[in-house]
């Protein structure tokens, strides 16, 4: 995929997240992202001909530790798409962005538990007499 196509993918991804694509550098194949409050990172995109993976990094000391999850994901087996990498970065940064952890499986389990507990027909409603 050429770099402009990757930049288009990144722009589309940004439209669904708090991040903005603030800079692209075609010769380095680098994209810089930023979100308030001061969360920043960049992605280096592999060349088409290379077997390299994407690379994510942050020049912010506060952000860097949160990228470990995304870096581990990228270095695991298999080719990754830019969208998959960006999604993993977003998940990694959720605590810094003040968003709840979006572990999909845990959320679904929690939602299912809540839905099961809601109907409480066994308990009398307040103010309704039992005759």
Automatic annotation (TrEMBL):
Keywords recorded for this protein, A-Z: Cytoplasm, Developmental protein
Entry-linked InterPro entries: Maturin
UniProt GO cellular component terms: cytoplasm
Major site of localization recorded for this protein: cytoplasm
Compartments where found: Cytoplasm
Biased composition (Acidic residues): 107-120
Pfam families: DUF4581
Residue ranges of the region described as Disordered: 107-131
Domain of life: Eukaryota
Record has ATP-binding as a keyword: no
GO annotation, biological process: positive regulation of ERK1 and ERK2 cascade; positive regulation of JNK cascade; positive regulation of megakaryocyte differentiation
Coiled coil: none
Similarity comment: Belongs to the MTURN family.
Name of the molecule in the record: Maturin
């Amino acid at each position: 995929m050429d770099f402009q196509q990757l930049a288009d993918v990144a722009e589309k991804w940004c439209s669904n997240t708090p991040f903005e694509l603030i800079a692209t550098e075609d010769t380095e194949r680098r994209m810089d992202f930023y979100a308030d409050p001061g969360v920043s990172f960049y992605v280096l995109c592999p060349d088409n001909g290379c077997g390299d993976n994407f690379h994510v990094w942050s020049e912010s000391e506060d952000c860097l530790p949160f990228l470990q999850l995304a870096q581990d994901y990228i270095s695991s087996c298999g080719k990754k798409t830019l969208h998959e990498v960006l999604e993993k970065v977003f998940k990694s940064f959720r605590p810094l962005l003040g968003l709840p952890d979006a572990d999909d499986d845990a959320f679904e389990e929690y939602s299912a538990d809540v839905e099961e507990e809601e109907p409480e027909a066994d308990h009398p409603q307040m103010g309704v007499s039992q005759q």
